[in-house]
Amino acid sequence: MPELPEVETTVRGLAKFLEGERITRVVLNRADLRRPFPADLVQVMTGATVSTLSRRAKYGLMHLDRGATMIFHLGMSGRWRIDPETPETHDHLLLETAHHRFALCDPRRFGSVDLVATGALNLWPQFAALGPEPLGPGLSVGHLKAALKGKTQSIKLCLLDQRIVAGLGNIYVCEALWRAGIRPTKPAGKVTGPQLARLVPAIVAVLEASIRDGGSTLRDYAAPSGELGYFASSFDVYGRDGQPCRRDDGGVIERIAQGGRSTWFCPVCQK
Ligand SMILES: [Zn+2]
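Above: the input record for the complex with zinc ion. Below: its predicted structure, written as tokens.
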């Protein structure tokens, strides 16, 4: 499932080929993904120039010169293909510029495409309640201290709450908590100041490391079958149950369930 680093990598990859380019053709191969494509999508996008691309939480934003922004979410299985050699059954949306073709492929169709007035993006319901970006200035020790104050819910589940931090997924929360030495089950309100001071840079570091890994696939973007969005990462704790902690502290990584999802942690160094 594409997480924030994959979306960021996808946005950067698309930006290289789309920024400043005029969209000459838009084709919809079906009426909907998770929800219907906007009725005016083809009309608004055809002939528009892409000014910039950006990301908010796990959404990619394609800003057009017509005061509109196309917002895409990759859902469970979505990815963009650049200059695909052969069409795929699940290429649901096609964009063309003078130089390149782009296909949004989404076999499971949990993704979405929306069109929102650029000036009103912050009011878009999916964005209105989002917390700060983990890679932006809004994520600070002070913000977390205030947001977690008195909370009895576990720190793991609080960090997955998009109202507290936007766009953090299961993998990166597990990794950041290991890096910061915080037990995932600890009540969020009981996480200490020094722990929060380690947590903020830990979140930034795990995301940036993953984006850097993804960056290595940027080289392939120009390849005819170039696919954006997925890359393998090596994790310190995620998926490593039964294996020794990478801190060599004698701990063996444990796997538990929290909120219906798996959590991995080291019982020795995460307190
Ligand atoms: Zn450990």
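Notes for the reader.
Residues 180 and 201 are 8 Å apart (CA to CA).
Residues 193-215 form the longest helix (23 residues).
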